[in-house]
Amino acid sequence: MKIVVVNNYKEIGQIERAVQSIERFTGQLTETIDFKEPDLYTRVTESKPDLVILTGSSALLSKPRTRERFQPEIDLVRKAQFPVLGICYGHQIIGSAFNAPLRDLGQMLRGYEKVSVIKKHPIFDGLPNDLVVAESHRQELTKVPDEFQHLAQSSASKVEAMVHRSKPIYGVQFHPERSNEDHPHGRVILQNLLKLIRGF
Fold first, then answer.
1. Calpha distance 158→28 (Å, rounded)
2. Secondary structure letter of residue 172 according to DSSP
3. Which parts of the chain register pLDDT below 50?
4. CATH number of 3-198
5. Contact predicate 159/148, CB 8 Å
6. Which pLDDT score is estimated for 63?
7. Distance of CA 11 to CAs 16, 38, 39, 68, 142, Å?
8. Quick one: how far is CA 181 from the chain centroid?
9. Is 75 helix (H, G, I), strand (E, B) or coil?
10. Distance of alpha carbon 44 from alpha carbon 52, whole angstroms
11. Nearest to 142, CA basis, from 105, 102, 170
12. Which pLDDT score is estimated for 194?
């Protein structure tokens, strides 16, 4: 299975850790493509991905200049003919591609938090209705786009997980790749996603 990771991080250590975790939890090697690559959609498509993962970022998508810089990635989501998973900032990129509004929380939300599943979906197979997952974000989507189903929420963020109604496009506000032995739910979500992609 070919996984392409679109890197939105500025910090080299952040993307290295994210990729190592994704490869460890999925058992697949990945190819990393930076969001700034010229003609991003063509570059990703030519890699023939089975799954594209959009990473987190410390950037704030509510800033017009930031949105302008990430417009090629927003366009990539709109045109995607392949499965996509947006993580944290990547989740917000997906929301922006489908016109969902963003808001700033005023502070960073960090740590392992409870997230409640509000709609059963195969991505949560084998997991309880209350997940404990890693959060690290300052902004959030305030609404699920019309084309999406709302899958999970938390006391801090209304839109913690969503899926497109007709395309294999998934967004999670939390960081499943930051799972550990004490908090394994994120790892299970990534593994469930791979099973779904294989059936796509």
1. 31
2. E
3. none
4. 3.40.50.880
5. no
6. 87
7. 9, 20, 22, 20, 27
8. 21
9. helix
10. 8
11. 102
12. 96
Distance from C-alpha of 32 to C-alpha of 44, rounded to nearest angstrom: 10
Domain boundaries, the chain: 3-198
Joined together, the tokens standing for residue 21 give 């975790």
* Active-site residue set: 88, 175, 177
Q: Is 150 helix (H, G, I), strand (E, B) or coil?
A: strand
Give pLDDT, residue 136: 85
The per-residue pLDDT for 108 is: 66
Q: Characterise 199 by phi-psi region: left (phi > 0), alpha (psi -120 to 50), beta (else).
A: alpha
What digits encode the pLDDT tens for the residues 111-139?
899 999 999 999 999 999 999 999 887 88
Judged by phi (left if over 0) then psi (alpha if -120 to 50, else beta), residue 111 lies in: left
Would you state the pLDDT for residue 145?
96
Pairing mode of beta strands 30-34, 51-54: unpaired
Amino acid, res. 194 = L
Task: Assign 122 to helix, strand or coil.
Answer: helix
